[in-house]
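User: Is it possible to get a 3D structure for a protein together with its bound compound? The compound here is pyridoxal-5'-phosphate. I've pasted both below.
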Amino acid sequence: MTFDPETTTFLIAGPVRIHPRVLRAMSMPSLNHRGDYFHGIVQEIRELLPVLFGAKGRQVILSGSGTAGLEATYSALLPKDGRTLVLKNGNFGDRTHEIARRYSTNVTTLEAPWGRALPLDDAKAELAKGDVRAVCVVHNETSVGLANDIASLAPSVKASGALFLVDGISAVAGIPVKIDAWGLDAVVAGSQKGLAAPAGLAIVHLSERAVAALHPGTFYLDLAAHLKSLEKNDTPWTPAVPLFLALREALVLLKEEGLENRLERTHRLAEATRAAVDALGLELFPDPRYASDTVTAIQNPAGMGDLELRKVLERQYNVLVQGGQGALTGKIFRIGHMGIADWPDLLITFAALERVLGKAGRVRTPGASLRAIVDRMP
Ligand code: PLP
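Assistant: Yes, that's possible. Here is the predicted structure of the complex:
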């Protein structure tokens, strides 16, 4: 078997596999983005968006990848005066830190080693000082397969009065994001993760408090301008029309499945993945207590790098999983199991993985990883 992008088993950490209905939705002739037909599509998207976030509020759709949503949010909401608190423990936390430093002159950053829990007690101590105006955190650190415990931090952020700004790119529609209960002011989602739409749109949920606090940031990604246009089912500039069509269909699919059901399926797939990893004698990379349900990060077996593992999976078995980023390149691999990923994807991936490891003499109990998955199927 050789790699074929049209038939590959595709479990990278996003973009994720896309349902044929969503793919077909993009095959339309050009539409007038200022015309009634497209305005109708935007209206439908707006009506469907609370399904994605599990909360009502003001939601903005931006043409641009997840990072566009982060830049839009931080540029418009980080305080001109007062302190910004950034928490980081992975590659995307580093990115948050970089963007925050562009738009806030007074940034305090607290970090944990990649894959370890955030220093929440230190964060609470900073918040108690009373001058923090915004807190920025990545909910699900895709780079290390770790879900940060932002629920525990929420009461302290609330008490401090700071805006709570969350990178939810690989969390939304994958793990519970309790926007209202945790008092989140901005949550950034990316189209290519739990929603299972194509890459290229960022969706930002804003609380009323955040809407009131918006100030001019970047021009193209100006959240206030987008909100104003969206009220008329319009966009300030030419939107990525085919992606909006795909977004609508992906939201319809999510509504049909139900957000809670999607979260539950993602959780079960994650548990099965972790059990299969264990059955193969492999180790997770992050602290297992915080292992993410949308992406599992696994340490490469000693002596096996990307060439011996991921590239063989890709070239011989037509299975795609993701590598590590930055310093973790060649040291870990990551399996994404969000969006519309399902049991057959896991079974094929672990069958191939077990074969590759078996040929290298690394499998103690043949079939154990598949057994672990089958035992957890509904
Ligand atoms: N933040 C997180 C948690 C992510 O997982 C990603 C992408 O994987 C990003 C930010 C960046 O998003 P994008 O590559 O869509 O700009």
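The radius of gyration is 21 Å. The pocket of pyridoxal-5'-phosphate is lined by residues 14, 65-67, 92, 138, 140, 142, 167, 169-170, 190 (CB under 6 Å).
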